[in-house]
Amino acid sequence: MSLRTRVMRLFSVATMIAFALAIGSVGLAAPGNKGKNKGDKAPAPLPPPSAVHMDSVTLSREIDKFVADKLKAEGVTPSPLASDAEFLRRVYLDITGHIPTAEKAAAFLDDRDPNKRAKLVDELLASEDYGKHLADIWETLLLPKNSDNRRLDKEPMGKWLEERFNRNQPWSGMVHDLLTATGDTEKNGAVTFFVANGSVDKMTDEVTKLFLGVQLQCAQCHNHPFTEWKQTEYWGMAAFFMKVESTRPQAAAKQGVPPAVQESDKPKRGRNALPESAKIVAPKFLAGEQPKVPASGAIRPVLADWLTTAQNPYFARAMANRMWSQYFGRGLVNPVDDMHQDNPASHPELLQELANQFAKHDFDLKYLVRAICNSQAYQRSSKPTTGNGDAPPSLYAHTAVKVLSPEQLFDSLGNVLGKPDGRPGEARKAAGGKAGPNVNARTVFVAFFGVDETASATEYQSGIPQALNLMNSPRINNAIQNNALVRGGKPAHEVIEKLYLTTLSRRPTAQELEKMTAFVKKADTPAKGYGDILWALLNCSEFTLNH
Question: Is the pLDDT of residue 40 over 90?
Answer without folding.
Answer: no
